[in-house]
Amino acid sequence: MGCCLFGIALLVYFLLNLYGVLSPSSSFFTAVISKGNKEREVYLTFDDGPTENSAKILDWLKENRITAVFFLIGNQAKQQPLIVQRMIDEGHIVGAHTMTHRWDFPLRRPDNIATEIMKGVEVIPCTVEWFRPPFGVINPLVALGVKRTNLKIMTWSLRTFDGVTFDKYKIIQRLKKVKGKDIILFHDTNDDIISLLDRFNEIIDQKELTFGHPSSIGDSI
Ligand SMILES: [Zn+2]
Fold first, then answer.
1. Would you list the domain boundaries of the chain?
2. Can you list the alpha helix ranges (DSSP code H) found in the chain?
3. What CATH code is assigned to 22-211?
4. Ligand 1 center to 120 CA (angstroms)
5. What percent of the chain has pLDDT over 90?
6. Which of 95, 102, 206, 208 could link 130 by a cystine bridge, Cβ 3.0 to 4.6 Å?
7. Residue 28 above 80 pLDDT?
8. What residues act catalytically?
9. Does the keyword NADP apply (predicted)?
10. Residue 181 contacts residue 35 (beta carbons within 8 Å)
């Protein structure tokens, strides 16, 4: 009997874990922001930079007078301090996305998770408030680790898979689903990012939405 109960408890734990892992907007394990709070605004976020595309993205944002959030990988930020400084100088919000972005990040001990996050924070020369977990995975270990850092977690409500597919048609079909309050996930790693952003800008116009300033995102906490 005890064994059976233990089995059930284990299964429930496993299913909850799976839910937290598969649903980056879920706040099951910890507070997570995955949407803004203004009806007609959407917010741009870029993960996995800086890369050689980041300067082009910054030019595009400047030209279109849009402020975004960049979630940086510490190792890359360390190698490209000038582009990180430019993000900060141009008023963008810079968040942490771990030091190494390794696949086993969500499987480590909470103290190790916290260290990996804070190493990534230390290479960013401004106050960092936000953390985005690699792959959007928030399980109990990640939740405990992040709690030790005092950072807030921002995920997204619309992902384009632009980091894993270069099929522009598919990405654009996903972008067409945009709604007010959405936090959009793009990647600095997509070499076609500027034409995707141009197309997305048209979609936003057609839907009579605007790009919001991401500093208001935290207001919904
Ligand atoms: Zn990432």
1. 22-211
2. 2-22, 54-63, 74-79, 81-89, 110-122, 140-147, 168-175, 193-206
3. 3.20.20.370
4. 13
5. 79
6. 95
7. no
8. 47, 187
9. no
10. yes
